[in-house]
Amino acid sequence: MTTLAQWLALETPDTALASVIASMASAGADIAATLRMAPITGDTGLAGATNVQGEAQKALDIISNDIVLAHLRDNPKVSLLVSEEMDDAVELSVDAPFIVATDPLDGSSNLDVNVTVGTIFSVLPTLGGPLQKGTAQVAAGYIAYGHATTMVLRIKGRTSGFALDTSGEWIEIIAEAKIPEATGEFAINTARERFWDAATAGYVRESIAGETGPAGKRYNMRWVGSMVADMHRILMRGGIFLYPLDSETVSKGGRLRLLYEANPMAWLAEGAGGRASTGTQSLLSVQPTSIHQRIPVILGSAEEVLRVEAWYAKS
Ligand code: AHG
Ligand code: MN
Ligand code: MN
Predict the structure, then answer these.
(1) In the chain, which stretches have pLDDT less than 70?
(2) Radius of gyration of the chain (CA)
(3) Is the CB of 299 under 6 A from ligand 1?
């Protein structure tokens, strides 16, 4: 059995980078323990505050953010933390080599119903500042808090999976994640159909037509409402995730955030042989202009993402 510490020692000679990942993994283990107790402590509800994006914060959004912040404050290798739950980036250790961007608790609307939520993070070199393209990431990962707590990590080329054992140790469970190229599952919030653009509507219509349509095969639809949970399914058995630009989100630039949702997931997907797009360009090539910037997200099995891109190209 390979532990996270052993995996890190094999994957990177950079002990500073390894320590940042280890800090995020420890934060994840603490968040997992907190979530496990939440129905008893009663922390699943609203905090009574809104974040910079105008979203109601859950108590656990804030608690999870505090846990990540505390772990990264203790790590002298992190210069800056960008978080969904904090208006501004927080300066940590001066001259430290890495920036972390995080969604400390993704899918928090699922908390009161005990559905999988997660933590997403992206690691960038300090030199370029927080507004770097996704291609500049040096590590990324997510932690999924389901019936098992699992983590998927990428450093450089390899994307591996881990599970948290009952003693608090992360154990490698997937040596090299590979998203199947073809899939029969798509994930999109179909309740937003009336806001969709022609490309999204065309792609979904074609998929629903199944074996009688141009795709020539049957599809199934899955939508958890936690990007981490949807992504984990896609990494394990293929699929496509879409949160496209639609007529309601267009004024904000999309729904999901570029720095700490789209970029880390896109980099993980591509590390596992998948594809990530805005519909019209590679997600990882988007130049960020602000830390909480939103972006359309289409990612997963390469064949499906290419089909959506083809729809965008012709519409
Ligand atoms: P967050 O809980 O961090 O705000 O993110 C929720 C995101 C993402 O996890 C999910 O895919 C999407 O919002 C769900 O959107 P709908 O509410 O439109 O289903
Ligand atoms: Mn989120
Ligand atoms: Mn969140």
Answers:
(1) none
(2) 19
(3) no
Asked if residues 299 and 276 have their Cβ atoms less than 8 Å apart, the reply is yes
211 and 298 fall within a common domain? yes
Ligand 3 mean position, distance from CA 84 (Å): 6
For ligand 3, an ion, list residues with CB under 5 A. 84, 103, 105-106
Separation CA 264–CA 138 (nearest Å) = 10
**Crossing angle (nearest 10°) for helices 15-41 and 4-11:** 150
Residue 108 Cβ contacting ligand 1 at under 6 Å: yes
Average pLDDT, the chain: 96
Q: Let me know whether 215 and 169 are in one domain.
A: no
Look up the CATH number of the domain holding residue 241: 3.40.190.80
Q: Which DSSP helix (H) or strand (E) runs through 202?
A: helix 198-208
165 with 261, same domain: the answer is: no
Q: Which residue, judged by its Cα, is nearest atom 16 of ligand 1?
A: 225
Residue whose CA is at the smallest distance from ligand 1 atom 3: 106
Q: Give 72-115 pLDDT, tens digit per residue.
A: 999 999 999 999 999 999 999 999 999 999 999 999 989 989 99
Domain-ending residue, one of 134, 152, 174: 174
Per-residue confidence (pLDDT) for residue 52, from 0 to 100: 85
* 61 pocket-lining for ligand 1 (C-beta < 6 Å): no
Q: Note the pLDDT tens digit of each residue in 16-54.
A: 999 999 999 999 999 999 999 999 988 888 788 888 888
User: Could you tell me if the CB of 224 is within 6 A of ligand 1?
Assistant: no
